[in-house]
Amino acid sequence: DAIDAFEKGLKLDPNNEVLKSSLSRAQAKAAESENTDRSLHTDSGDALDAGAGGAPGGGFDFASMMNNPNFMNMASQMMNNPAISQMLQNPAIAQMAQSVMQDPNRLQQMMNNPALARAMQNMGGNNQ
């Protein structure tokens, strides 16, 4: 889940303020979601399960992504890049990360922007 993703990110870059802030927000959202889950519980099951990541309803599965060795290798390389670390301090980037944390499907929408997709490829070292 998002909390695990941010915790793993902080293991790679423990001083990253954006990740610290995002982790705090994710934890608050998780607590808020637990309260909402309890209030939406029905006889047929939890109404929120249908949209959970990795569930039949779809959604982005952060846990699978964070357990992918290729992704973790790329993330490690990115966190060791001073330009990336500096970029992550940008409030606009922090806002984008927060947006994706709230609705992981927004990542796909962002990647449909050709300029942003190229920038992400360049960050990953694919600047050909």
From TrEMBL:
Molecular function in Gene Ontology: molecular adaptor activity
Family annotation (SMART domains): STI1
Biased composition (Basic and acidic residues): 31-44
Keyword vocabulary terms for this entry: Repeat, TPR repeat
Domain STI1 residues, every copy: 81-120
One annotated GO biological process: post-translational protein targeting to endoplasmic reticulum membrane
Keyword set includes Transport: no
UniProt xrefs under InterPro entries: SGT, STI1_HS-bd, TPR-like_helical_dom_sf
Assigned GO CC terms: membrane; TRC complex
Location of region: Disordered: 22-58
Keyword tRNA processing belongs to the record: no
Name of the protein: STI1 domain-containing protein
